[in-house]
Design a protein that fits this description.
The structure holds 2 protein chains of 2 kinds. Chain A is α+β, with helices and mostly antiparallel strands. Chain A has helices at about 55-80, 85-95, 145-155, 160-175; strands spanning about 10-15, 20-25, 30, 35, 40-45, 50, 110, 120-125, 130-135, 135-140, 185-190, 195-200. The relative contact order of chain A is 0.23. Chain B is built from 7 helices and 10 strands. Classes of the chains: A alpha+beta, B alpha+beta.
Chain lengths: ~200, ~240
């Protein structure tokens, strides 16, 4: 059994009009057995920078902590906020530095540029290969299902409220078709002046 | 059968210098650093001037003999596309710092895929210089360096000293006669200075302390602006000299 499929997850990020959204399920399981419906997989790294971590639960926690460590030192030393693209590159080099003993996570980065507030989303594989897109990125055991949902529902320039509906439906319907994802959902809508967190009422099975 | 072997005798002294050679004097000074600054003060002059649209660094490249191949030694060195460095003092120490600075800039780029902010580069170089004042078996660097850089649409000029302190400057001079150089710059400097004028002023500042004939082979000029850092060719230097 693959380490990337042991705990189960569904994470998606979408680009909107002057905003981004990132959403995840809340399940933590031990293969078939569900352990928690409250497991955090999206981490706020900075004011308008979010990191979604699908994959092995222990690595989700460790990687988020280690990256936060690096980002905080960057902020203190450079006296500035880290741009999403720079963060992506940092995560990429971090993962590649463990090329032959990798962290079993396939991160998703979503955020707004500090100065221009331009939206940014990207994902990468467990050894740091980055992929920047202008529509959506998906990850986790329900990634195939998420691809189907996003491809169908997403359209460009969605306003924050519409983007919420689209990303929530993409997540819910994808995770319902995956045994290892689900048990709740959380959506972050990231705009220039605010971040809105909404928890979804989902099928708890 | 065991054959007793005589191990090579190594004295503690030759094996490692675990003590710092830079130690405090009763007055609270680090005399090694004072002496290093003296070495800087005896070195060939360098100047740096920050303009509104760029930075210029320049230095005297004294040829002690006509037999010297002028081109083989460079005083102005590029550290990264957007930053350059010059020094006054012991040239071999400068070479080492240039190597280290270049590597530090590239390491940063490897992680962040971004050019290193000038101030970060300066901090790292200054940190290296400080290490050599507090490590075993080494002496402080016998150079002060001027680092010119351009990032995020702004010019930067910094100085790093043998002690590891660094300062941001609008304009400054190092090496022989640096006090006169700085006085000269204080009178000439204005915030509205443009790069062309700054180069001009830099040449005039060097001229103040110049012994002998100043020509395109006896000075080196580097400029840093939005297009990046570059060393001026001897032809370009000649043109500037002609216009003073």
């Amino acid at each position: 059994m693959s380490a990337l499929e042991y705990n189960g997850s569904a994470i998606v990020a979408m680009m909107g009009h002057e905003c981004v959204a990132i959403a995840s399920d809340k399940r933590l399981g031990r293969q078939a057995q569900t352990l928690s419906c409250d497991f955090q997989k999206i981490f706020q790294m900075s004011d308008r920078l979010f990191l979604g971590l699908p994959g092995l639960g222990t690595d989700v926690e460790t990687v988020s902590n280690r990256l936060r460590f690096r980002l905080n030192l960057y902020k203190l030393r450079e006296n500035r906020e880290m741009k999403p693209r720079t963060f992506l590159n940092m995560v990429s080099s971090f993962l590649y530095s463990h090329r032959f003993g990798p962290y079993f996570v396939e991160p998703i980065v979503a955020g707004l540029e500090p100065t221009t507030s331009e939206p940014f989303i990207a994902s990468m594989d467990l050894i740091g290969c980055p992929m920047i897109t202008s529509d959506f990125v998906v990850g986790g055991t329900a990634s195939e299902q998420l691809y189907g949902m996003c491809e169908t529902l997403w359209r460009p320039d969605l306003e924050p409220d519409d983007l919420f509906e689209i990303i929530a439906q993409s997540l819910l319907n994808a995770q319902d078709r995956d045994a290892l994802s689900g048990w709740g959902g959380v959506v972050y809508i990231v705009e220039k002046d605010k971040v809105t967190i909404r928890h979804l009422k989902a099928r708890m099975d | 059968k065991e054959v007793p072997s005589t191990p090579l005798k190594k004295s503690a002294m030759t094996e490692r210098y675990s003590f710092s050679l830079t130690t405090f004097s009763p007055t609270g000074k680090l005399v090694q650093i004072e002496y290093a600054l003296a070495a800087v003060g005896a070195g060939s002059p360098s100047v740096g001037i920050k303009a509104s649209n760029g930075v210029v660094i320049a230095g005297e490249k004294k040829q002690r003999s006509a037999l010297y191949d002028a081109d083989s030694i460079k005083k102005v060195e590029m550290i990264a596309n957007h930053a350059g460095m010059i020094s006054s003092g012991l040239a071999p120490d400068f070479r080492l710092l240039v190597r280290k600075a270049r590597k530090l800039a590239q390491e940063y780029h490897l992680i962040y895929q971004e050019p290193i902010p000038t101030v970060r580069l300066v901090q790292k170089v200054a940190n290296v210089m400080q290490e050599y004042t507090q490590s075993g078996g080494v002496r402080p660097f016998g150079v002060s360096v001027l680092i010119a850089g351009w990032d995020d649409g702004k010019p930067h000029l910094f100085q790093c000293d043998p002690s590891g302190s660094y300062f941001a400057w609008k304009a400054t001079a190092l090496g022989k006669n640096y006090i006169n150089g700085k006085t000269f710059l204080e009178k000439r400097y204005s915030d509205e200075l443009e790069l062309e004028d700054a180069v001009h002023t830099a040449i005039l500042t060097l001229k103040e302390s110049f012994e002998g004939q100043m020509n395109e082979n006896s000075i080196e000029i580097g400029v840093c602006n939005a297009e990046g850092f570059r060393r001026l060719s001897t032809a370009e230097v000649k043109d500037y000299l002609a216009s003073i």
